[in-house]
Amino acid sequence: MFIPFPDYHPKLKTDNLKKQVWCIVRKKWVIFTKEEWVRQNWLNYLINEMHFPASLIAVEKEIRLGELKKRVDILVYKNNSPWMLIECKEQEVPLSEQTIQQILIYNIKLNVPYLVLSNGIESFGVFIKEGEIYKISTMPNITI
Predict the structure, then answer these.
(1) DSSP 113
(2) Which of 71, 77, 85, 100 could be a cystine partner for 60, CB 3.0 to 4.6 Å?
(3) Is the Cβ–Cβ distance between 73 and 41 less than 8 Å?
(4) Burial of 62 (0-12, 13-18, 19+ CB in 10 A)
């Protein structure tokens, strides 16, 4: 699935010798890692290109998997329920069986119909309905 990320120039600053980026959803400065670059490009795309309301997007939301606490990168809600999970990886991290397993494990808890895995260069998405998994080639629109 090709995602046409628009040209994006996030607000950046350096604090204590660490580069930080302003998160448009969390409304705070966060460390600007390679994974955060992917996450911020996705947020910009969802809000400014796909017109998803920022109020329906959670970033680095904590979930519990048994005794483990995990954080999902981007969780989009629709009708007050989790609807789409986007897992972001650094550009150098290939989308592999291991990264796909990670998002599938997260979805055991969340049970969303749309899963997207992206390293900012490649993106892979699926739609799950009645236990069947279908590959998607475009991002679904959120209609409220």
Answers:
(1) S
(2) 71
(3) no
(4) exposed
